[in-house]
């Protein structure tokens, strides 16, 4: 995930949320950019697909 979102700026942190019991992805995560304007670039590109899933940005 960090590699994918790095196309829009320097990623400081990227975390995929996982189920504590099964260890499987919950299907969402969080990305923190060094510069908040990079998140704006991502929002402008809404409709991105990551691992066959729709990518959404919530600011």
TrEMBL record:
InterPro entries: Nucleotide-bd_a/b_plait_sf, RBD_domain_sf, RRM_dom, SLIRP/GR-RBP-like. It comes from the Eukaryota. Keywords: RNA-binding. Residues 1-59 form the RRM domain. One of its GO terms (molecular function) is RNA binding. PANTHER family: HETEROGENEOUS NUCLEAR RIBONUCLEOPROTEIN 87F-RELATED. This is Glycine-rich RNA-binding protein 5, mitochondrial.
